[in-house]
Amino acid sequence: MIIVPYLLCGINTAIIVTKIKTGEDIRTLGSGNAGLTNTLRTQGKIAALFVLLGDVLKGTLSILIVRFSFLWLTGTDTANPDNMMTYVGFAAAVAAIIGHVFPIYFGFKGGKAVATSIGVLIPLAFWQLLIAVCICLFLIWRSGFVSLGSLALVTAMPILLALSGKFGLLPLSLIILALVFWSHRENIRRLAKGEEKTWIKK
After folding, report:
1. What is the largest CA-CA distance in the chain?
2. All residues at 6 or more sequence positions from 138 whose CB lies less than 8 Å from its CB, including other chains
3. Inter-axis angle of helices 36-43 and 45-74, nearest 10
4. Using H for helix, E for strand and C for coil, what is the string for the chain?
5. Contact (Cβ atoms closer than 8 angstroms) between residue 115 and residue 60
6. Along the 202 residues of the chain, how does pLDDT read in single tens digits?
7. Count of CB atoms situated within 10 Å of the CB of 153
8. The pTM is what?
């Protein structure tokens, strides 16, 4: 429940896609971040689409692999809130996000975990996530700042989960919020100073 998600999500799609397209290391380009926004700025929309799909898919797969492995091995559905093993899915989600931010394959320097967080939340809180993504996209459209939309997404999730009565997912959503805010600490500093760049390639 920890090792598989960590190792799977440590596969950084931004690094791989950029290496295949240009032969370069994306961590030496643009902002130096191995993530979706930097891929969009430096490699274009098609490459960024592959990164988005890869990061979301690996997060979702992490949860599903762990869930169905436990179901097959023990007969216990870890997604069922009526049993005591829902922590398995939570642990898998946290390990997946940590794997993306601190990948063992790339010197523990990865992305900022927003797309991977979306991936792990799809099987756990789809409708609440959909609303949060809409808020995120609206803010990106209005402001041009991907970081602002990303921070709004993870901030909205605990509120939406509480409003819908999914209190069991609140600890996970708060951990995701903390990790994403930590990985965006430089973006927050630049937003506060008015120095943050938009998603549009200049």
Report:
1. 54
2. 149
3. 150
4. CCHHHHHHHCCCHHHHHHHHHHCCCHHHCCCCCCCHHHHHHHHCHHHHHHHHHHHHHHHHHHHHHHHHHHHHHHCCCCCCCCCCCCHHHHHHHHHHHHHHHCCHHHCCCCCCCHHHHHHHHCCCCHHHHHHHHHHHHHHHHHHCCHHHHHHHHHHHHHHHHHHCCCHHHHHHHHHHHHHHHHHCHHHHHHHHHCCCCCCCCC
5. no
6. 899 999 999 999 999 999 999 999 998 998 888 888 889 889 999 999 999 999 999 999 999 999 999 889 888 887 766 666 678 888 999 999 999 999 999 888 888 989 999 999 999 899 999 999 999 999 999 998 999 999 999 999 999 999 999 888 899 999 999 999 999 999 999 999 998 888 664 4
7. 26
8. 0.89
Report residue 42 as tokens. Answer: 């430096």
